Amino acid sequence: MGMLNAFTIDVEDWFHVCDVDNKESKFDNWNKCENRVVDNTLLLLKILREHDTKATFFFLGWVAEKHPELVRKVSEDGHEIATHGYAHKLIYEQTPEEFSEDLKKSVNILEGIITEKVIGHRGAGFSIREDSLWALKIIAECGLKYDSTIFPAKRGHGGLESAESYPYLMDLERNLRMWEFPMSVAHVFGRKVPFSGGGYLRLFPYWFVKRSIGLINKRGKPAIVYIHPREIDIKQPRMKLPLSRKFKYYVNLKTAEAKIKALLADFEFASVKKVLKL
Ligand SMILES: [Zn+2]
């Protein structure tokens, strides 16, 4: 058996996009948008079942509140339920009080649906950076055992280039420790390059993704893959986005499903909880 890697899904809909100013992405309009997250998540569940793989589903609280039956179904399939916050707000645009409230609300919703305790968190848009590191302590104080928000590379929003590239246990203060499972990066000509999720996973050729995970595993470390249900939905409505975001959001949607299946066939994956032995 090969090394165990983490497979993660941020359960949100096609209009949950951060850091843009368009009609659909505004919280007050979410209820008016067509729901596509349920069917797309069910399709991902089917693919995971076919590959006998368990994953971590970071549910947006807003989605869980609207579709508790979906949370139950994912949990009954043996996957880990974790939180993606409630309203998909960037952490560095919130006060610590607002962030704490949003996080607690999402955990309460999830724990009201499933019997298991929620122990993992991923913030919207990977938005823990130098000026929002305070969030880690709040997450740990909330009783969570790991965070998986840090992106140890340069990117549009979020991004903490100096951060470690592999999972590590953080000492936040006396008696307060929590794991961080940062997004995987490839090292290309001395630069850290994201490759294992979202637009990056769709953009890079499969051989590059496969080789990069292989290199991480060769060092004895687990990689982490992250996807969104909308990424296998080629028929999703297209939003008016700035050109660069539009590219990242919609590039190579057609290739996503095949890439996900190839990854599941080529590597061993499990939930974050299992990979970190929590
Ligand atoms: Zn998200």
Attribute tags:
278 residues; 10 helices; 11 strands; TIM Barrel; alpha/beta; four-stranded mixed sheet; five-stranded parallel sheet; 36% helix; binds zinc ion
Give an overview in words.
By secondary structure, the protein is an alpha/beta fold. The chain has a single domain, classed as TIM Barrel. Strands 1, 2, 3, 10 and 11 form a five-stranded parallel β-sheet that branches. Strands 4-5-7-6 form a four-stranded mixed β-sheet, covered by helices on one side.
How much β-strand is present in the residues?
15-25%
What is the residue-averaged pLDDT?
Answer: 94
CATH architecture: Alpha-Beta Barrel
Order of helices and strands: EHEHHEHEHEEEEEHHEHHEH
What percent of residues adopt helix (DSSP H or I)?
A: 25-40%
Write the CATH homologous superfamily: Glycoside hydrolase/deacetylase
* CATH class category label: Alpha Beta
Most strands sheet: 5 strands, parallel
Spans with pLDDT under 50 lasting ≥5 residues? none
Note the overall shape: globular
CATH fold-level label: TIM Barrel
Gap from first CA to last CA: 20 Å
Bound small molecules, by name, code or SMILES, are: zinc ion
Helix-strand category: alpha/beta
Number of helices: 10
Question: SSE layout and pairings?
Answer:
Elements: E1 4-11, H1 37-50, E2 56-59, H2 61-66, H3 68-76, E3 80-83, H4 96-113, E4 120-121, H5 134-141, E5 146-147, E6 168-173, E7 176-180, E8 185-188, E9 191-194, H6 198-203, H7 206-218, E10 224-227, H8 243-250, H9 253-266, E11 268-270, H10 272-275
The structure holds zinc ion.
Residues 10, 12, 16, 84, 88, 124 line the site of zinc ion.
